[in-house]
Give the backbone structure.
Amino acid sequence: LPTYPFEKHRFWLASSQVQNMVDGSGMPSTLPVSPVSDARGHGPTIMLTGDEWFLRDHIVQGRKLVPGVVQLEWARAAAAVYFEKGLPVQLEQVAWLRPLEVDGPVQVRIALRPEQESRVHYAVYRKMENGEEEIASQGYALPMPDQDSRRLDLDGLLFGSEVLVEADDIYRRLSGFGLTYGQGLRSLGQI
């Protein structure tokens, strides 16, 4: 990033790179969510093949599982479209009920059901081979009108921390527990 405001170098992605990263709705194309649920809770569906980067990079005990953070992003994106206010969305009372395993083509549905005027219940479902749906996670979404009031003081959290663990050591330890993270999900620097 530039450190001097009048520096002549550009640090932005070319528009063609951005276009490849984002679909027409402004959501990342790697986490596809189509708009919007109807009043009965029928919501956006996603067809997974098993070859998505987040599945290749998230192997648990040898099984490809949709990471919890991906399910959160699906819920957030679907709720953002539902609320249509352009406000950030807050998720609360999140519960992961069972792993969402993808061992071949799988259809996933995000159901949204209005609970109160400014709150919706969301659920992430996997369509089983017999046509039944199995719930993977659920929670509530609501628009967040003032995002500045909830910022964390990261420097304050780090103050007094005596032990730092490097990312390679963290991922090596996680691998020992059967959690294999590929490059696409390795965002830690140190803890």
